[in-house]
Amino acid sequence: MLKGNPDIGVYTALPKGCELCRLGGKLVVYITGECGDSCYYCPVSKERFGKDVMYANEAKVETLRDFLYEAYRMNALGAGITGGDPILALNRVVRLIRMLKDEFSSDFHVHLYTSGRYVTYDVLRELQAVGLDEIRFHPVKDEYFKAIEKALNFNFDVGIEIPSIPHEKDYLEKVIKWGIEKGVKFININELELTERNFQPLNVQGYKVNHGLTGVKESAEVALSLLRKYETCNLALHYCSSVYKDVVETRTRFLRIIKYSSKPYEQGTPEGTVVRAIVRSNMDLSDYGEKIGEGVWAISPEFSNLFSEVLLVEEHPDQRRLRISEKLVYPKSE
Ligand code: SF4
């Protein structure tokens, strides 16, 4: 039976990694931008793709230890390791999984994405030895399916995750049939997204946005028709929309960061942002907030009425502190 909401996601059952993501509990580990493939629809940004850079959630980081700090900030329940192709940074992946499991326990759920291009038995043995819980293949070429068959001999959950490209519906159906025959645990079908990097090749093929901010026209319909056709099959099928990432994944993760790491004077909002008041004063306001510059204090918005001029700012709670809005208010004026 299909569950869920077509605007967010529809599924017969959810992989464990997706269940934890829905709780906002998955740390997003971007371990390298390097990849041996070059899919025309690749959604990875220009700043990241092809570069050996690391990001913990939205923040660029330099060391593996930074991922632990970020996991603490959000009280993470697990991590999803992505790229590029993480297998090109296998040493880093193995060290990081070991660090995460040592720090947070073996129950800390780790899933990993790969095209399968570089997945050998040796790679799979190393991943199993450090306790990888789930592996998701994006087999962009026919020969990469061999890697999925190899992975099925190991003790982690094996799934396939592919975008729903409207003119490739027959191929998608072929992948579902292959997955059923081989006994993979799940197939995730993502709504195809138009991004800054892929909009030209997708526009050339006639694709335009018509769902949420980035969802490509007819991608959802194609995925949902396949889910309906195969809803009684023996593997977990899951369609994940582009809207999900903004409305559920990022927002719930931000709500966790607010719950576990926001400062006492910051006010959280249901949208997953924080609001603080910035005031100028030569007084010591450390009972109300903290000093952020010479004579400049960040305090709780609830004390705004004590000041004649206040800058109210709303920001994302993660380390980048992306500012969503700011408003100068004069609480004591008429
Ligand atoms: S395999 Fe993934 S990361 Fe690599 S080019 Fe294709 S979509 Fe992008």
From TrEMBL:
Molecular function as annotated in GO: catalytic activity; iron-sulfur cluster binding; metal ion binding
Ranges annotated as spanning the membrane: none
Recorded superkingdom: Archaea
Keyword Iron-sulfur tagged: yes
The protein's name: Radical SAM protein
Keyword annotations: Iron, Iron-sulfur, Metal-binding, S-adenosyl-L-methionine
Species this protein is from: Stygiolobus azoricus
Keyword S-adenosyl-L-methionine: yes
Pfam families the record matches: Radical_SAM
Domain Radical SAM core: from-to ranges: 30-136
